[in-house]
Amino acid sequence: MSAVLLVRLKITDLTAWTALHTGRGLLPAGHELLRLSREQLLLFEPEEEGRAASFEEGLLRAITGSNFFVNPNKEAYRFLRSSQRGEWWAPPEGAWGLLARSREDTRDEGLMERLKREHPLPGLRGIRRARVYWLWTRGPDGGPAVSVCLNALGATRSVREGLLLNPHAEASLPIEERIAWKDVETFLTAAAPAYGAAA
To answer: Which pLDDT score, from 0 to 100, does residue 44 have?
Structure first.
């Protein structure tokens, strides 16, 4: 299993703020977008047959002692060790999520090279990058109306349809009540489907 770092802004996230206000106008009547936040997700893959525990202590030192991953003046983070995160990833209370990744290779080779120069981490095979949107929505019945809101706010199809994803360049994975971490790892490491195949 991989280790995970989630990073979010402590200051106002203008991109999320803009998406919140734009998204409210895209929802059908009777549906509300109450809140929207986003986090960057970095997945740290161990070598084949290796374990993330072999590099997690060194990785944590790199996270807390440098600005490779987090600017402490502007950002907060959660570091999830492979042995402590559990099998499932659950959204924040009352929210559902949309995990987005590039259709290209999700590996951040530049970051990996810079990291290895200053913080050698034996056993680390690669760093994968993605983004997650957390949405708090409400439908006419008081529930989150995930499918309707996802259709309205997810992949952009026209000026009035979709918002958070460019389907030509990005693939996405909804996170409703919870999702298995192994499915997240597969989503980030496997080749993304071509745009036409994903529709």
So the answer is: 96
Structure tokens that stand for 16 in this block: 């999320």
The torsion region of residue 41 among left (phi > 0), alpha (psi -120 to 50) and beta comes to beta
Cβ-in-10-Å burial (0-12, 13-18, 19+) of 79 comes to buried
Give the tokens for residue 29: 């009547």
The H or E element spanning position 62 is helix 53-65
- Cβ-Cβ contacts under 8 Å for 67 (sequence gap 6 or more): none
Question: Distance (Å, rounded) from C-alpha 63 to C-alpha 77?
Answer: 9
Number of domains within the chain:
1
Distance CA 199, CA 197 (A): 6
Please give the Cα distance from 56 to 62 (Å, whole number): 10
pTM of the model: 0.93
Give 115-124 pLDDT, tens digit per residue: 989 888 999 9
Q: What is the pLDDT of residue 197?
A: 57
Query: CA-to-CA distance for 55 and 3, rounded, in angstroms?
Result: 9
State pLDDT tens for residues 80-113: 999 988 899 999 999 999 999 999 999 999 999 9
Determine the structural domain holding residue 48 and report its residue range: 3-198
